[in-house]
Amino acid sequence: MMPAADAAVLMLTIPNRIAELPAGMDAVEEFLAAHAVAPGDIMQVMIMLDEIASNIIKAAWPDDEDHVFEITLTIEPGGRLLLIASDDGMAFDPTRSNPPDLDADLEDREVGGLGLFIVGEMSDSMEYSRVEGRNRLLVAKQLGVPC
Amino acid sequence: MEVERTSVGDVQVFRIKGRLDSGTSTAFEAAVLKTIGPGANRVVLDFTQVDYVSSAGLRVVLLAAKQTRAQQGGFAIFGMAKPIHHVFEMSGFARIIALFDDEVAAFASVSPPG
Description:
The complex is a heterodimer. Chain A contains three helices and five strands; from the N terminus they run E-H-H-E-E-H-E-E. By secondary structure, chain A is of the alpha+beta class. Chain A has a domain at 23-62 and 97-102 and 109-133. Chain A has a five-stranded antiparallel β-sheet, covered by helices on one side. The longest helix of chain A has 21 residues, at 39-59. The two termini of chain A are 28 Å apart. Chain B is of the alpha/beta class. In chain B, 40% of the residues lie in helices and 32% in strands. In chain B, helix 1 runs parallel beside helix 2. At the A-B interface, helix 1, helix 2 and helix 3 of A face strand 3, helix 2 and helix 3 of B.
């Protein structure tokens, strides 16, 4: 997909180590603030990025080698934000993960499985494709909509 | 992320500043979970200065709540901004974790009766 000519774009290459993630998060926060994105939207985009990037870091590569993945953020002129994650790890479709049991009591509530559910809740759409050995996740969110 | 711990009577208060996400959850977990045990089972988290909470932070909150419950103690969070409260609602946590606007109410909820 080609962004519109006057869209704002941020491209990041992030190593597959959790310790490297905060630097990427900082860059995203600066980018969003520089384009006058509202604090509530910035917070949601940061959360979505943390969920998506940490999933890739933890699950995409079974080896202990160094890898990198790409994150691209695009703010379209109409205020729609596109977040694209691309990695060459194992095929994984995040749009098909099982939802958590939101009604469980404290004792029974399981600890995991929330991340991708939260991305789904905070975004308007999630599309996954596997192309030429790469996972590609496209998440779209209209900015400026009160939650 | 920074965590400052103070004890007021039987209650341990953790004042958290910054992001609770996958980059900080290990430090958050170490700071909070290690302190919960027999006789140290009443915990209040001050979220006044938390920027945001992702599922990695929610995981630690859930573990802390479970541990204090298992020790017959109490667990409460106060002072979270509206967008963070929204995250707790969408994840079903607002129903199982005691959330308060102010510190006094949070303290009262975890304090032993009498």
